[in-house]
Amino acid sequence: MTAEVTQILTRVQVEQKIRRIAFEIYENNFEQSEVILAGVSGEGHVLAQRLADVLQQIAPLAVRVMKIMLDKTTRQQPAIHLDAEDAVFTDRSVIVVDDVLNSGRTLAFALQPFLNVPLTSLKVAVIVDRDHKRYPVAADYIGYKLSTTLTEHVQVVLSDEERIGVYMR
């Protein structure tokens, strides 16, 4: 038996959410010369790239996109890898970006590399917040807050141009 898939957000709605988040990021960082968007590998990194595109259109900020490489499926992370050196982040505003905030586990791991670096600020941005947190992680920039059951699966599609949207099954 296949679970029914329901589209929660269309392409247009996702693009509106991304644009709104970009404006919020700019409003909170207008005094900065540079903002670093560190996207969690997969759709989180794609979201970071899309946010950077919008930020570069609306703000005079320099925007750098980094990738946080981790395995979302494993319960323990042996090491979290960034595609940049720690010095790049020093005295910068960093926003960790992921597609969905569910339990907070992935984002808790994703924040770890930044804890020993002196930053201007460290924030979190997600397109969907499901609000089933087991870890003390909250998003500062949220595209859409969605109440779901624990058995429902939310999928954000940004990398497939034909299917951009948010889906639930």
From TrEMBL:
SUPFAM superfamilies assigned: PRTase-like
InterPro entries for the chain: PRTase-like, PRTase_dom, PyrR_bifunctional
Gene3D superfamilies in UniProt: 3.40.50.2020
Record-linked Pfam families: Pribosyltran
GO-annotated molecular function: glycosyltransferase activity
CDD domains: PRTases_typeI
Domain Phosphoribosyltransferase: 5-146
Keywords per UniProt: Glycosyltransferase, Transferase
Domain of life: Bacteria
Name of this protein: Phosphoribosyltransferase
